[in-house]
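Support case: user asked for a sample of complex input and structure output to validate their parser. Sending the pair below.
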Amino acid sequence: MSRLDLSPAPGAAAPWRRLLTQAAMELRLTLRNGEQLLLTLVIPILLLLAGSRSDRLVGADRPIDTLAPGVLALAILSTSFTSLAIATAFERRYGVLKRLGATPLSRGGLLGGKVLAVVALQIVQFLVLGGLALALGWRPADGATAWLWWLLLSVLGTVAFGGLGLLLAGTVRAEATLALANLVYVLLLVGGGVLLPLDRYPESLRGVLAALPSGALGEGLRDTFMTGSPGTVVVVVLAAWAAVAAVAAGRWFRWE
Amino acid sequence: MEIVDLTMHYGRGAAVVKAVDGLSLTVEAGTVTSILGPNGAGKTTTIETCEGFRRPQSGTVRVLGLDPVADAPRLRARVGVMLQSGGAWLGVRAGEMLRHVAALHAHPLDVDALVERLGMERFARTPYRRLSGGQKQRLSLAMAIVGRPELVFLDEPTAGLDPQSRRATWDLVSELRDHGVTIVLTTHYMDEAQELSDRVHIVDAGRVIASGTPADLVSAGARNSIRLVARPGLDLGGLVAELPEDSTAAEVQPGQYVITTDVDPDVLHRVTGWCAAHDVLPASILVERQSLEDRFLDLTGRELR
């Protein structure tokens, strides 16, 4: 008990330390959460394994070349939208945001911690899913520019979906966020142009799908890895979603 | 810390509820101050305004000389907060959560020593969702003080605790005060306010209706009494004449007398002296001093809320 010196000695830890502490905690909690791992890793892995053998579904000579970029797009959707929204909604509901708001962490640190945790998880996803796809015979387009495009599209997609996820978590009840975030994941997975090329959808839907962030991200990554670069329209659409989602989340997100 | 004329209300139009209605109080550094009041008196709203979670709708609040909302970044490291409920991820282990909050501070308490002090070893590795109410309370208290703040807000720190844990919490609060930490706590337990506080503010319907030390508040109320059980039919007129002015005596039931007076040792001596002089052997003499609870009920009324 002599080690317990109760005299005041207030002070905040260094900003980088607070940020890393918070990010590590968020990442640990996500990795501990089975439902989140199902969405972020298990389902994408199963889709890769099942889809790489199904040329009827994907409709190409080499289904894995079409499917792998789609699965990487799905990984971004699952982490930055569904997982982030659900986790944040329950942090809000259970007073975690309020509690941490009363520590030296600050709101900037909270947000920064989330961004770092999402990025870290996406790197894990990329290594696991990309590695598996390569093992299954995926041949991405050659050249450094393809990877630069991949990086840009991933960042834009993360900002767009992350902004939308925070907007959802910060405005509606936690239970509603849980239901909606999962529903959106499933709907976009099946019919949002993430996994399958737009030319597999009815012609009347293609315009709408191309304007969705899911369709733009999926199509952009497919073009990038199959031809070396995405179309201009896709980049513009995704950038617009990223800008709108970030501004909307900043405007309407409520911490409590 | 200073609150001047704070007013906070919820809802709008005809449904406006004033949670806090022109409340003013001051807290001196290095003291334990209790905000005591019935449920719905505005205690939590007041304390959350001091913590910077709510912006005053009118009036001013200064904490450590700073504005709790505008200067929040500077205050967060200096002020410890215990929320009334929640505040942790469901999947986080108790010890892990405490360590996390500690790591956000520059010179935190030794986490292991604090865990030991609060008897948290047994559940330090238990996920938050499986903690009992009392265990959550202890974790919440630990999170409030682990950053070694100079000012601590405790919102109902012992609600739902068993007697041993309450006592341990009280000991810790006293010890923090002895080390120079300023503590503001809300409670609706009179014994807690009476035992712990240097100063008590009784709050009802959003305003302070009485302030002072626990002793001040008690002695400002109705006077104390001596309850005497002896043979029936005694004439106490002669005794009352020997007691301080305004003393009264009545035989409330045959053989049971209540002497209402300012009780002190000298008064008690006079009562027993009178008994000796009149050959009265009381079956019991009970000195009834008013408790803070009586005073509280006198002030806030006895009806349920």
